[in-house]
Each structure stands twice: as structure tokens, then as C-alpha cells.
Target: DUF4304 domain-containing protein
Amino acid sequence: MTESEAIDKFKRFCRQEFKDLANQLNLKEVISPKRKYENPYKISFKNRKFFIQFESISYGFCLGTTFGKSSRINSFSVNNAICLIKGRAEADRYNDTCPSGYEANLQRDLNILYENLSFFTQLDDQQKILNLLKVQKENSKLYSK
Model:
């Protein structure tokens, strides 16, 4: 399989798995401008209020899911959200039990999105954004060691 075919396969899989939720939330796929060092294994969806992005990393071994306001001033990881929703111990467990392959990771993240949909989609609460920024900063220090 060529890299181009692998990228197409990744994006097709994400579109298919995310289709129902994207339709429910009126999210449209975003066509990203081509940048020289952009990860091609990335796909984003957004509406007027928020976005969700899936990015395959480590040659498809893992997947990063980010979300935020559609302005994209700030973006947050699912791990950031888990810290606020379920606590640090659950966020650490999320990191420690990373399944192999983007397919399994996407399924895991979609389950979290479905279970906590209002958390990920209602981002007008300024205190929630401040709390996410605080957790993001803490995680950056914690996981960069």
C-alpha cells in the first residue's frame, strides 16, 4: 500500500466512523490548506461553534483527538477533558492503556465523546475553557518529563 492509499484509508475510516455524530451535530469536514510540514494523517470537522480533529501519529499506532471552539484559538485533547470529567487517575489510565492502531483509538475516543457529548460541544462556558487551559498546562509539564 502506498502512503497516499494509507492516508485515504485513514480518512475514509474516520469519516465512516464519525459520520453519525457529525450528522447529529451538523459538522462538516474541513479541507485544510496544504502546508509544507503538515501531517497528512489528519482530518477535521467543524460547525459554527466547535471543531473536532483526528490525527494519526506514530505511523498509525496512535490517534490524537482534539476539540475546541471553531475559532481554533485553543484546542484541547481528550485527555484534557478526561482530567476535568473523571479526574487525573482516569486520565492517566487513558494514557497508559492506549490500544494499538488508530482504528481502536478512534473507537475509544468516540465512546468518550458520546458519553460526554455536552462537555465537548458546549464550549461557551468561559470557566470550562479556563479549566481546560489549566489542565492542558499541567499535562504539558507532567507528560514532558
